[in-house]
Amino acid sequence: MIQLQQLSKDYAGIKAVVNLNLEIKKGEIFGLLGPNGAGKTTTIRMLTMLTKPSGGKAFINGYEITRDLFDVKKEIGVVPQHMNLDIEMTTWENLELHGRLHKMPKDDRRKRIQELLDYVELSDRAGDLVGKLSGGMRRRLMIARALMHYPHVLFLDEPTVGLDPQTRRRIWDLIRRMNNDGMTVLLTTHYIEEAEMLCHRVGIMDRGQLIALGTPEELKKRVGEVVVESLNQGGTEYKFFADREQALKYVGSFKQNVIIRESNLEDVFVELTGRKVGD
What we know:
- The protein is an alpha/beta fold.
- It has 2 domains: 214 residues, Rossmann fold; 55 residues, no CATH class.
- Helix content is 36%, strand content 29%.
- It has a 6-stranded mixed sheet, with helices on both faces. It has a 4-stranded antiparallel sheet with strand order 2-1-4-5, covered by helices on one side.
- Helix 3 crosses helix 4.
- The longest helix has 16 residues.
- The radius of gyration is 21 Å and the shape is globular.
- It starts with a strand and ends in a 6-residue tail after the last helix.
- The mean pLDDT is 92.
């Protein structure tokens, strides 16, 4: 569904994305993971035609992003990181405007709006001004707006940033439901748990390059599935092992307290880059 071939972006000599090669399958939830400045948002901006690539090519369902602009726009829905709804319009009016911009016929447009409001559980807030909605409601409305014109691919840039844990999980349920209905999803996130809970595959970016790619389980096996944490000269030392038996054998002679736990994607990232995801 999405193909990137040597995709690159430079800003005044700074390489934001470097020769990115990637394929995302139809019906896949794919996550881009990495710290601020890793190139995640720039990649999304190129794929959604908000930023022109400096080099390489990218295709959405067979359409090239710098050549087939109108076809690509029909294929994609975009939920940006920052809220960009019109807060002086109602929930319904925001969807109505999006439908008109995509030249949807009146009857189809109104039917689709009602379907989506039911889908994201906002039917009872259709006549409310967006400025009166909570952050979670606004995020769900942004997702509904992105789905208005029946896209095949949904781009989510930090979809749950700033939301409380309960609202975040509600958004996760919505993403899973869309995916079960056949939607291909590409999301960026800082939240390790979010990537592990949602994504079929994850790509880890650092300094504009894709440095690891695979399922969460495959990436964790790459460094070791069990971690031993221990204090060493005032700092925490991490040792990785293939299984708990090897970890227990390693700590058998230790006199200080240690923590033995399963590894996660943040462990993978730190091992590969020396930095934490939130850095």
